[in-house]
Amino acid sequence: MSSASLHSTQLQICDRTLSVLVNSLGATPHEELYILYRIVRERLQEAGAEIVQPMVGRYATSMEMTGVSFTLCKLNEELEKYLTAQCDCAFRNVSTTLRQWHLDFRLDFPPLSLVG
């Protein structure tokens, strides 16, 4: 995310709570994804955004394709409630403990249990 594109898209008051998904297309290693997430997080926080439940990992891949995709999701109270709700399925696990930890401390990094 370039500084120019971030500044051209001004965050409104209602847009300040976001979830960030940094997705490997297959061959991009987790280490590089975390570096990219850190850069995006810093720029969004400089613009006044609060990041909720970030996700970094391989969520939608294409046969070892190199690359990364970024998804920013504007959250309201209802969407934030669903995103942080307790769940346990094949591709996502948010435990009660992790959910409460997230709500108490507003994580600014992806918890390891959410990495695919």
In total, how many beta strands? Answer: 6
Considering the protein shown, what is the CATH homologous superfamily of the domain at 3-75? Dihydroxyacetone kinase, domain 2
The termini sit apart by 23 Å
Q: Roughly what fraction of the amino acids lie in strands?
A: 15-25%
Order of helices and strands: HEHEEEHEEH
What is the topological layout?
Elements (H helix, E strand, L loop, with lengths): L2 H6 L8 E8 L5 H17 L3 E2 L3 E3 L10 E7 L2 H7 L3 E3 L2 E3 L1 H10 L11
Parallel strand pairs: 1-2, 1-3
Antiparallel strand pairs: 1-4, 5-6
Could you characterize the architecture of this molecule?
There is one protein chain. The chain is of the alpha/beta class and 116 residues long. The chain has a domain at 3-75: Dihydroxyacetone kinase, domain 2 (Hypothetical Protein Tm841, Chain: A,domain 3). 34% of the residues lie in helices and 22% in strands. The chain is built from 4 helices and 6 strands; from the N terminus they run H-E-H-E-E-E-H-E-E-H. The chain has helices spanning 3-8, 30-46, 77-83, 96-105, and strands spanning 17-24, 50-51, 55-57, 68-74, 87-89, 92-94. Strands 1, 2, 3 and 4 form a 4-stranded mixed sheet that branches. Strand 1, helix 2 and strand 2 (50-51) form a beta-alpha-beta unit. The model is unreliable at 103-107 and 111-116 (pLDDT under 50).
